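Worked Example 4.2. Read the sequence first, then its structure tokens.
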Amino acid sequence: MNVSEAISLRHSYRGRYRPSKVPREDLVSIMKAGLAAPSGCNMQTTSLIAVDDPETLKRLRAVITPPVCETAPAMICVLTQRINAYRDHCYAVQDYSAAIENMLLAMTELGYSSCWIEGHITDEDRIGAQMAVILGVPEDYELVCFLPVGIAETSPVPPKKKEFEKRAWFNYFHENR
């Protein structure tokens, strides 16, 4: 599969997963893809924790309310450090976003499905912080996202996208409604 194929085949999947274990070497490949992403001023603010232990997954799922991705046999938790870089700007959000997209594409290439789950765990109930405690994450890191990893029980349904011509132009902005 080439990069263009992975981009067009990648879709968020929120359904049930097959119980097949995700091999560690696949989790390593996925995380390496994430850590290869660009990072503002090379501050490398993104770190990752792969979780494939059934007992740890059970403990994490117990704090995720409402429940999502309960049947995924593995997950990758995305951590960030809010470190200022160029002219006191922090690029942590851009850094972990690039890492997440790389991992989603790597998962697609390997035949896995996933979903970027961030808002669900970073709002006022601070589920990400509860997950971080379970994983022993130091206080200077924030758990901002998790990606379930597994083989989908059903085929992911691609979302309807707006036409190219309504979102991309050459040389100047041209809105065609």
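Now turn to a second chain, presented in exactly the same format:
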Amino acid sequence: MWIYEKKLQYPVKIKNPNAALAKIIISQLGGPDGELAASTRYLSQRFSMPYREVAGILTDVGTEELAHVEMISTILYQLTRNLTPEEIKKSGFDTYFVDHTTGIYPVAAAGVPFDAKYIGVKGDVFADLNEDLAAEQKARVTYDNLLRLIDDPDVCDPIRFLREREIVHYQRFGDALRISQDKMDEKNFYGWNPSFDKKVH
């Protein structure tokens, strides 16, 4: 289905560890609008999509989101490597450190662990695609917020790349929505679901 190339999609080379930045960036790993939720959402939705082209878009974007999980995890690792206990306490990273040391664990910036409730899967073409369009915009806003708070260019550079990919994904899901609308006929998915409903409206 896809080929894993053993390198990051975009380089991450952070010179200065900064656990305070890791505390906020971690939301894009395990938060409600993060990359783990996105990849799981799209790779789950693809199975019930009736159109091959749309399932293909979900597969493409979902697997790319896995690459983004890898990038965010690398950012977190580089921001928290070789920290002293004093740096951990000073940055406020101590509450995370107690439970996870500096291991990469999916939580939101507020400390809430990743939850499957972040994954919207309805099994309906239009409900799922509109969920996906909204998800990409929410992720883009989260990256905007991170860029407003971060001044380290080594951190901002990969974050900007990830933000740009959210915009591309939004456009791809717009294409998927148009494809699905063009394929509607008397079996109008807005009115009924032919997989379950036998009578024609």
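Notes for the reader: The chain has one domain: 19-182. The chain has a mean pLDDT of 92.
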